[in-house]
Fold this sequence. Notes:
The chain is built from 7 helices and 10 strands. It is α/β, with parallel strands linked by helices. Strands 1, 2, 3, 4, 5 and 6 form a 6-stranded parallel β-sheet that branches. Strands 7-8-9-10 form a 4-stranded antiparallel β-sheet, with no helix packed on it. Strand 1, helix 1 and strand 2 form a beta-alpha-beta unit.
Amino acid sequence: MNAVNAVNIVVVSAGLSVPSSTRLLGERLAAAATGQAPSEVPVIELRDLAVDIAHNFTSGFPAPALAAAMDAVTGADGVIVVTPVFSASYSGLFKSFFDVLGARDREALAGKPVLIAATGGTPRHSLVLEHSLRPLFAHLRAVVVPTGVYAASQDWGDKGLDARIDRAAGELAALAGALPAAGHGTVNGNGTVNGNGGAAGGDAIRVTRGGAVDDKFDARNVVPFEEQLAALRSAG
Length: 236
């Protein structure tokens, strides 16, 4: 797979153990998307920010480490989010981080490519991706890549997991390299991006069939988002 050059991908991991299979999955996804070694992948460990996140809820102000983590997510070209499964959903720590991020900047993830992933002990929880994570990030107006990755305990070392990682990472890399800079637009249902953050009447831009960004186009010639993604993947 060919990674997109100079794309800033950040991993947000809600793993609690050391070592963490949740972090490992995030690192593998990021390495596949960027071509970097896992040790070079920037990872935000929410376990280390748990106290700061709790204090942010009561004070309304983030501690320096939490503020730096939120800045990293806001400034990234694409984000990989990984959570362990608790009670058939994402963890409370995972949700709390994105709650304080949204409270600080409601547009933090608007139009940003996000790859959703989760780990669990059994394959029966794989639907957490569609029932919990995808709706959460759709609500935050992120561009959620089509392929999510769930890794149960028995999936590690399986070729099927490797294939899902490569497919999802390729989709993220294509979107992160083709969409506008982070925080500068929101994606509409027809595949266009509002350059003014989604306000009515704003200028629109779109990703063309060749992967370029066009800021002047005829709305009658908009390429459906699914076709844009297919073209980007084939070009990569």
